[in-house]
Amino acid sequence: MPVDLYMSVFTEFAYRLPTNIEWHVMTANSNRVRLTAGRIAAFTCPPGKSQAFLWDTDVPALMLRATPTGRKTYAFEARLFGKTLRIGIGPIEAWTLEQAREQGRNYSVLVDKGQDPRELKTQHQAEKEAQRQQAKARALTVGEVWPLYLENGRPKRRDAWKPRYLEDLHKMAVPGGVPKKRGEGLTRPGPLYPLLALPLAGINEDSLKLWHDKESKSGKHQAARALMMFRGFLRWCASQPEYRAMTDREAGQAPAIVQNLPAMTRRTDALETAQVEAWWSGVEQLDNRTASVYLRALLLTGARREEMATLRWKDVDFRWCKLTLADKVEDSRTIPLTPYLHHMLVGLPRVGEFVFASSGDKGHIVDVRASHAKVLKSASIERLTFHGLRRSFSLLGEAAGAPAGAIAQVMGHKPSATAEGYRPRSVDALRPFLGHIEAWILKQAGIQFDSASKPGALRVVEGGK
């Protein structure tokens, strides 16, 4: 055969090679007609068959599938990379014939390009889901995450929040609007409450500055403390994989906010030696015996107010004269029970599990500010906080000549806070130092006390200076 004739035949043969879909049509079931509404209605699955197909001539890859139950659906079938590709389109009740043909044509275009419509559909669904999740994330509010923070956001190296700090976190975010326990009117919302409605992703330098400027008008120091607490919330969110992408951890540290914070002055309030007698006298005159003993216990031990308020009877060892207090740094610490404090505790009524019992919800004394205010007024002392009583113990202990390390250990200070190269002492080793401090404070208060007297038979002679 001449070369020119051979090339002509080969070109004609190559030109007539079928596409993927045409090739499948050539090998498909010969049951092929132009689909119409009538033919679709009349088509049924023959007896003994599990399914039957009727192919369309207008869109060769479109077929009608019928089952013995009478169900009829449109489907697309073609060959892709040497394998049969079948995709369901939908039931005849949901798709018109023209809609099914249009879908078939779309699938055909993709297959001829070497693309699998199923993979494109999966990709499209994944993109839609990603968009939905992003929209959901953008709508996630601080108020939805805040309870999770209170439950799981405990400080590092601790099993749980400090009860008082956790209570403050709750108070900072209360909605307010409830009758005041003291006075008339309704309570105000907590400083952090306005932030709860904002999207977490919307917390940035601008939104926080706007919030802080507004809250500062009601109280600069309260707003500053609320900001510090909210910084902790942002740090926790940034550490959680599900919230990290939508959290601006540095928002609360923006210069525009920090430069307007009030100066944090270190409090130095404490009882002067000359004020001890007037303060002690005012405390003894309180009608509330529990509050009176509680305030004196704070001065005689240097304990934090929450540590003493939550003291339980089971943690008071009257036999071996020891107190076990819940500690801020460690889980607990044990200190000597000094003679005068021993006498005062024995004289308290045993109501419930707490030493300083109260009829309130917590079962123990919580707020004695009103009682202490009466004491300060009667003693003509302008200002003295509860932490000032703790500071007073330290200063009076130094004046009594006790070692700084012993004072710090009794108070529950971190070892690095001691001045003598921290050396832990046993309870028995602490006992003479704390007893000496107590005796020195009683002397300044004008109290003569027989430390050898039987507990419960307290004999106090006032004015014995």
What is the strand and helix layout of this fold?
Layout: H1 3-15, H2 20-27, E1 32-33, H3 37-42, E2 52-56, E3 62-66, E4 72-80, E5 83-91, H4 97-112, H5 117-139, H6 142-152, H7 163-172, H8 193-196, H9 205-216, H10 220-239, H11 241-244, H12 255-258, H13 276-284, H14 289-301, H15 305-309, E6 316-317, E7 322-326, E8 332-336, H16 339-346, H17 369-379, H18 386-399, H19 404-411, H20 427-444, E9 447-449, E10 460-462
Helix pairs in contact: 13-17, 14-18, 18-19
Total domain modules: 3
Uncertain segments? 1-29, 458-465
Q: Beta-strand percentage?
A: 5-15%
Give the assembly state of these chains.
single chain
Termini Cα gap: 140 Å
Strand order of the largest sheet: 1-2-3-4-5
State the major sheet: 5 strands, mixed
How many beta-strand runs? 10
